Amino acid sequence: MDWGLGHVRDPELQNKYSSIVASITESLRFMHTVGADTAGGLQTVDLYTSHEGLLLEYEQSLTRRLKNPAYDSHSRSAVPGETGESSGDGKAYFNTSAHFLWIGDRTRQVDGAHIEYFRGIENPIGVKIGPTTSCSDLLALLRKLNPTVEVGKITLITRYGASKVRTLLPQHIRVVEGSEYARSVVWQCDPMHGNTRSTSTGIKTRQFADIFSELQETLAVHQEEGSYLGGVHLELTGDAVTECTGGSEGLAEEDLSLNYTSFCDPRLNEKQALEMAFLIAGHYRGEKNMI
């Protein structure tokens, strides 16, 4: 397996990453030795799809009334027509365009059309939470989208910007954990969208250090508040694009024009994405060593 660490210029970083790679390789070798991968489980994945539910006409056209796999006529009360519940025949509305959809920071108005649509489907739902999200709006969104307090139904995707995490995230965690929704939501960090900026020449970009800083701060705050980060939302590609600056390969603003191919938001390239994975792994390795 080629992890491609040649781009890492810092010898200390390269040693750290090499150590992680060696540990992973050794674990895979051990699993192969004991026959743990004979069924091909290491070569396959469960694939789930997700996107922002932005165009309601598109989402509506792919919404179907289907058998709800979670419905149990013996143990669950069925109230026909009630939002978030299956009807008496065990059917409910599902969006079939993706397994998981999220509501963007600009379309999460409590009385808006997007919330009205999303509250009627059974899919798990993500909600982007940003600097303009008040604590009262956050609770109102949860109560409208998940009135039955179904555990895991809602994922709160925080996207503040690296400099605002310490100010905003603690109060959002406290208001949720102090309500009926305590331990029922999944917390996720989107360190990309709050750190977008334009260069002096008007090119849209993100700084690798800012992305990782927001993720680091988010992990630290969750640890301090006794909550848990359940996922990370990254925009990345396996191609050698030059859209985000920084990282161990040292991409500068003048490098952005070399291979900037995104028509929308700047993405981490394959080397930056791998580096981010190593940094996240390093955080959890350090946390484990502290126990």
Q: What's the helix and strand layout?
A:
Layout: H1 11-33, E1 50-52, H2 56-61, E2 63-67, E3 91-95, E4 100-103, H3 113-118, E5 125-129, H4 135-145, E6 154-158, H5 165-177, E7 186-189, E8 196-198, E9 204-207, H6 208-225, E10 229-232, E11 244-245, H7 270-290
Parallel strand pairs: 1-4, 4-5, 5-6, 6-7, 7-10, 9-11
Antiparallel strand pairs: 2-3, 8-9
Helix pairs in contact: 5-6
Question: What does this entry look like structurally?
Answer:
The protein has 291 residues and is of the alpha/beta class. The chain has one domain (47-62, 97-290): Aldolase class I (TIM Barrel). 34% of the residues lie in helices and 15% in strands. The chain is built from 7 helices and 11 strands. It has a 6-stranded parallel beta sheet. A 3-stranded mixed beta sheet has the order 8-9-11. α5 runs parallel beside α6 (208-225). It starts with 10 loop residues before the first helix and ends with a helix.
Kindly list the characteristics that best describe this protein.
291 residues, alpha/beta, TIM Barrel, 6-stranded parallel sheet, 3-stranded mixed sheet, 7 helices, 34% helix, 15% strand
Average pLDDT score? 88
Under CATH at level 1, the class stands as: Alpha Beta
CATH-derived architecture: Alpha-Beta Barrel
Alpha plus pi helix count: 7
Radius of gyration: 21 Å
Helix fraction bin: 25-40%
CATH topology: TIM Barrel
Instruction: Tell me the name of the CATH homologous superfamily.
Output: Aldolase class I
Structural classification: alpha/beta
Strand order of the largest sheet: 1-4-5-6-7-10
What spatial form do the alpha-carbon principal axes imply? globular
Biggest pleated-sheet summary:
6 strands, parallel
Low-pLDDT runs of 5+ residues are: 74-83
